[in-house]
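Bench log. Compound arrived from synthesis this morning; before running ITC I wanted a structural hypothesis for how zinc ion sits in the protein. Inputs:
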Amino acid sequence: MKKIEHIGIAVTDINKSNELFSKIFGKKNYKSETVESEGVTTSFFQIGESKIELVSAINSESPISNYLQKNREGMHHISFEVEDIVREMARLKAEGIRLLNDTPKKGADNKIICFLHPKDTNGVLIELCQEIL
Ligand code: ZN
């Protein structure tokens, strides 16, 4: 793994949270993007070398909608950038870590992504991401 790419925060109202985090960070988000296939809409803030992703549900089948029914808004996942996501997925699988998807899927911000099963990661939802070139 190369570095922490971003930290994901689950929110119920992306517009309100955009305003809130713009105040907190003293700057606006640099991108908003809806990923229909995942049922989410996202918003990215750049803080120095780090990024914060706000993520909210666009429909009731969205994993974020599920998440917010069971949990409060807040820290949702940590995303690590990897050089070769397929190789990293195979390596982790061989280590006995379950993956939430068998093949990389399209994420926001020009990335392909894969989530690791939080039951195999001390409860931390870890996302792997690789930039699409
Ligand atoms: Zn993410």
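What the model suggests: The pocket of zinc ion is lined by residues 6, 8, 53, 77, 79, 127 (CB under 6 Å). The chain has three helices and eight strands.
ITC booked for Thursday regardless.
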